[in-house]
Amino acid sequence: MPEEQVAADGSNTREVDVLREVAVRVATRAAEHVRRRRPEVFGGEPIEGDGAVQSKSTPTDPVTIVDTETESVLRELLARLRPQDAILGEEEGSENDSLDGVRWVLDPIDGTVNFMYGIPAYAVSVAVQIDGVSVAGAVVDVARELVYSAALGRGATVERADGTQEQLHCSGVTDVSMTLLATGFGYGSGRRAVQGAIISELLPQVRDIRRIGSAALDLCMVASGVVDAHFEHGLSPWDWAAGGLIAAEAGATVRLPAADSTSAQGAVTVAAAPGVSNAFLAVLRSAGALDPIPG
Fold first, then answer.
1. Of the candidates 232, 281, 240, the residue with the CA atom closest to the CA atom of residue 259
2. Which of 36, 104, 151, 179 to pair with 73, CA 20 to 30 A apart?
3. Which residues, including other chains, have CB under 8 Å from residue 36's CB and lie 6 or more apart?
4. What is the C-alpha separation between 66 and 42, in angstroms, rounded?
5. For residue 57, what is the DSSP state?
6. What are phi and psi of 166, to 5 degrees?
7. What is the CA radius of gyration of the chain?
8. How many CB atoms lie within 10 A of CB 3?
9. 96 by DSSP, 3-state: which?
10. How many C-beta neighbours within 10 Å does residue 40 have?
């Protein structure tokens, strides 16, 4: 493919390759910080009530001191490497709500509850969007030291701690009844009640359901074929901006909320292996799972 080929969003492929390199660089550095700080802050035990953990939207929606530290690490690196670009982060938000131009979308720790309890499924997610479209991104599985990344039109890869790299491809599943499905739940009890009812309809129709606790990792697992599909309501842009691109570049059929969506609006995020995508969307539709669940 020619290096100056124009991508769907109007950027050229050399540009998105550079943006992908930056995303990998800053996400990897931030993951190192998360990996180092966990034993220092928690020492293997969840700590609440000492200032290390606070609540956000509900008592079950925590943020730790390491979340805020890590977002600062990401912002400081991007300020040096990409000082002209806008930033949207989970913890500090954005100074500019416009989707025009280049915007970095950051989740310092996706899977904070897992991080608190020492469950090895949490990630740093860094995406870059142009005019609201993700064009490059990286998700680092902190505990397993896996670096997932993608650039628009360039495919998706995973790099392991030993430096080996592999191209990502979705699973070859063709039967919805054999689909291993990943999902997640909101923090509010009202949304959870609706999600529980949907799950009760879906569970008899699929192979099984997994609740890992990190949407970014769920999407990367669709990309790598570890699970066959993922859906979840109420994700924010930082949850899906990198992982959604990685899944799409690995061949998944991906349905995302609007770039300016909020968790409260409750839109659904879907990613499915191509062999079951149409049938899986039909199953979701019949269960009412494609409709928003505001919360």
1. 240
2. 151
3. none
4. 10
5. S
6. -135, 140
7. 18
8. 8
9. coil
10. 8
